[in-house]
Amino acid sequence: MGAAMGDPAKQQPTLELVAARAGVSRATVSRVVNGSPNVKAEVIEQVNRAIAELNYVPNRAARSLANGRTNSIALVIPENAARFFADPYFATVIQGAAMYLADTEFTLTLLIATEADPAKTGRYLRGGNVDGALILSHHSDDRSYVELAGSLPMVFGGRPMSKETGPVHVVDVDNVAAAATATRTILESGRSRVATIAGPQNMGAGQDRLRGWREALDSAGLDADLVEFGDFTPSGGEAAMTALLERGQPLDGIFIASAQMAFGALKVLHERGILVPRDVSITTVDNDSYAQSASPPLTTVAQPAERQGATMAKLLVELISGGKVPERTIIPTELIKRGSH
After folding, report:
1. CA-to-CA distance for 193 and 233, rounded, in angstroms?
2. Angle formed by the axes of helices 15-22 and 26-33, to 10°?
């Protein structure tokens, strides 16, 4: 029995056992585990070798108590599960955030905020479970997240809709400029009756892209009266395209506020024998699988969603560490010309 107790290989690895194996103090091991810069490189190597030999796993609960952190970040998406899994934008933003955080001590927790009980997410974030949060795809009812930003480090992907905003940190593209660029691309091809299928007006991107379309037409001295609204989904694009055609008003171009809606709109146009771009020129926003696989492939303003996710994560880590970051960070976009205009 005595031999078993004295054999480190048969004991649950502890900080003390690592220290004994590495030939250093317990405090030194603790500093290495917590990433302190005040340890010599050769000592770090000794300790890490001992950790590997003993298969030691740091007690994260104890570390959290010691430094006041959970080393966890929440990425909150206030959408239903069906919308989340159908939209490639979310996956790309998550990938960017996860790739950035892979080289840090932080882990990423995905929260799809429930529609039945949105307060549940707020309680989780307030409960000390995470060190900060990334908020994506917010609607006009995002006031609770904006209020929470005063007590929890938080970065928004896109501008919050709440009118009662205090200082918040936002990473976004210039949606007004993106829509104006896409609309001007249609006008430059000689079209003059340019409609739009706008996004939902309870979201910043929906409002801003409608504004950009209007500004481009106003600058060209053209009427901005052909508007239908969708919900950023293919089925929403189908319904809006059907409604637009049923007006019976002439049109030769359409700016569609998302590639998913444009994909759905193309289906309706094909069914009715309306050729793109011969009869109708189409441009959109988002260079996702919908834009690339459409027939014809869509001319679009690409927003770099992966870069957006990485930038959001980077700024949040800096906030958690007590750093100062800009309240508004704009990610550049790129016009990609294809066969739809």
Report:
1. 24
2. 110
Residue 226's identity, in one-letter code, is: L
Q: Which residue has the tokens 């508007």?
A: 227
Model-level pTM? 0.78
Q: Give the chain's length.
A: 341
User: Which residue reads 């106003």 in tokens?
Assistant: 218
| β-strand partners of 229 | 198
Tell me the helix, strand and coil percentages in the chain, rounded to 5. 45, 15, 40
pLDDT digits (tens, 9 = 90+) for 176-227: 999 999 999 999 999 999 999 999 998 889 999 999 999 999 999 999 999 9
| Cβ–Cβ < 8 Å for 266, 245 | no
Which two tokens mark 225?
């009266």
Q: What sign has the CA pseudo-torsion 136, 166, 132, 96? A: positive
Token reading at 287: 């260079």
CA distance 148 to 164: 12
Q: What pLDDT digit, counting tens, does each position of 82-135 carry?
A: 778 888 899 999 999 999 999 898 999 998 876 556 667 877 888 788 999 999
